[in-house]
Write a structure and sequence with these properties.
alpha+beta; 417 residues; five-stranded mixed beta sheet; Nucleotidyltransferase, domain 5
Length: 417
């Protein structure tokens, strides 16, 4: 292999967004544009039923939201380690497995890397969470094996893995001028991972960094869980969630949980699921709510609603002001309120568990708060204002440093040996 081809491609295959970076030995990682000038793109695949084409990222979501007939797939990473991974689904008159859909997405990542670099990369370091699956080592190992198999199937010859928070640390280290002990916080779409690590310009030269990693912890909570909770609390009541029927019993809730979960939404469009939803009519006191539910299912508005919930969450966080979730796809002028107080109340339990995991990481490292020089934030969900407030309250005297939320892990993966 010639020196110009020698290097590592880092792929951050995320639940919500993905990014890639390339680094040559002793070189500086550079992020690879994935959609135009964008250095990250949504982990989304859209199978266009009108012309049998396949679309990715923002293009995929755009086609779906414009009403193009087809299937939108998101949160594919959440299926790793799940029995659903090898199940097949009907796409454009063909049965394909979710493992193959992941392979399709990785194929386009490799093609776009090849276009940007001028040659096809063969060595890749894939990011992985501390736990693909909580409290199940066998399923966790299977998740990594499935992702490795998918990467090899699309042409990568040398496939290795690095923990995503450690990759973020390797990227952050390049900016430090002195040794520091850092709590790395990586909040993605599906997981929250934490690492306490010693970093610094002198340590960066060492080949073996295992002694610098003081502790790692992780919990299977991420941005899609926040979206699910907000959807359940603010949107699904409009479709009958927690609605009391004629016998003062709540409408069965399974359909609402699935409609609020990205990788389960499409199952609710199946004939069997729609038939079951029709039988719920007798559980409603207000028939208009059941009509809304049936409209969402039969017209396949579930992904559109999930997208609007996510966008409202982002607006509420960025502006720190009340907003609304646009539901006009169901009925003109229909909307669900989403206030700062709603975010705080509905996400409190999830945030408490996430921050507790960060606290466990520092305790596992045997350190006190004053021995942590900084908390380094990466991953799109770490920008959530309610999370940052909860984390700062737990570590009152430790400065928060916001890194490259979408590209930091990919760059660190490219630096991994």
């Amino acid at each position: 292999m010639t020196p110009t081809l020698s290097g590592t491609l880092g792929i951050d295959f995320g639940t919500s967004n993905s990014a890639m970076a390339w680094a040559t030995p002793q070189g500086t990682a550079r992020l690879i544009p994935l959609e135009g000038d964008a250095l990250a793109m949504p982990t989304a695949v859209f199978y266009n039923a009108e012309d049998s084409t396949t679309h990715f990222g923002r293009d995929a979501i755009g086609h779906y939201l414009e009403g193009t007939e087809g299937r939108l797939m998101r949160s594919l990473k959440s299926l790793l380690g799940s029995p659903l991974l090898m199940e097949t689904t009907l796409v454009n008159h063909q049965q394909i497995s979710f493992q193959d859909i992941i392979g399709t997405f990785l194929t386009t990542l490799r093609e776009r890397a090849t276009t940007a670099l001028g040659f096809a990369p063969t060595r890749v370091v894939m990011g992985r969470p501390v736990h693909f699956v909580d409290d199940d080592a066998q399923r966790d190992a299977q998740a990594e094996a499935s992702l490795r198999q998918a990467a090899q199937a699309v042409g990568f010859e040398d496939v290795s893995f690095q923990l995503e928070p450690i990759a973020a640390a390797l990227d952050y280290e390049r900016r430090l001028t002195k040794d520091s002990t850092v709590l790395v916080v990586d909040l993605g779409g599906g997981t929250s991972d934490f690492t306490v690590v010693r970093l610094g310009p002198e340590r960066m030269q060492q080949a073996d960094r295992s002694a610098d990693i003081l502790a790692t912890t992780g919990v299977h909570i991420g941005g899609t869980d926040y979206d699910q909770k907000l959807s359940l609390e603010q949107v699904m009541p409009l479709l009958g969630y927690r609605h009391l029927g004629p016998e003062h019993r709540e409408v069965p809730s399974r359909v609402f949980f699935d409609l609020s979960t990205w990788h389960l939404i499409h199952w609710q469009y199946q004939p069997k699921a729609i038939s079951h939803a029709k039988t719920l009519r007798s559980n409603y006191s207000d028939p208009s709510m059941h009509e809304r539910l049936m409209q969402v299912l039969t017209e396949r508005h579930g992904h559109h609603i999930a997208h609007e919930v996510e966008q409202a969450k982002i607006r509420c966080s960025v502006t720190d002001a009340d907003t609304a979730i646009d539901l006009s796809v169901i009925a003109p002028r229909l909307a669900a309120a989403l206030g700062v107080g709603d975010m705080q109340a509905h996400l409190a339990s999830l945030l408490d568990r996430t921050v507790a995991c960060a606290r466990e990481c520092v305790q596992a490292a045997g350190l006190r708060d004053e021995q942590i020089d900084a908390i380094y934030l990466t991953g799109g969900s770490s920008a959530l204002r309610t999370f940052q407030r909860a984390l700062q309250a737990a570590f009152a005297d430790v400065p928060l440093v916001e890194g490259d939320l979408f590209g930091g892990v990919a760059s660190g993966l490219a630096y991994s040996l």
